[in-house]
């Protein structure tokens, strides 16, 4: 579903049917240690970009709303975890580095025969 800022995110839910105005981030709301979510956080949230850059089915994301410097402003921080190799993922946009290392040769990997 599209977030209020227009990006696609599978964790955002909006129900506007018959006058309803329900919006929620199911990723942040699943984290009991997070501060509350509001729609303004979608503008700077890194999750839609991470989902677009890394479609690995083994990537599990955990998002938290944190207060900014001196308590001013709020931002979303994201941690990743690989459910296949049971590893913390340092950069969720890239992945763990193990899930896709065993792929077969691509047409782009093949050398042209000399001749």
List the SSEs and their pairings.
Elements: E1 12-15, E2 22-25, H1 26-29, H2 47-53, E3 59-67, E4 74-82, E5 87-89
Antiparallel strand pairs: 1-2, 3-4, 4-5
Structural features, described:
With 115 residues, the chain is mainly beta. The chain has a domain at 27-89. The chain contains two helices and five strands; from the N terminus they run ββααβββ. It has helices spanning 26-29, 47-53, and strands at residues 12-15, 22-25, 59-67, 74-82, 87-89. The strands form two sheets. It has a three-stranded antiparallel β-sheet, with no helix packed on it. β3 and β4 form a beta hairpin. The protein is globular, with a radius of gyration of 18 Å. The protein starts with 11 loop residues before the first strand and ends in a 26-residue tail after the last strand. The mean pLDDT is 88.
The largest β sheet comes out as:
3 strands, antiparallel
- The radius of gyration over CA amounts to 18 Å
Portion of residues in helices?
Answer: under 10%
**What is the averaged pLDDT score?**
88
Q: Which structural category fits the helices and strands?
A: mainly beta
* Count of beta strands: 5
Looking at the structure, what is the overall shape? globular
Low-confidence stretches: none
Q: Helices and strands, in N-to-C order?
A: EEHHEEE
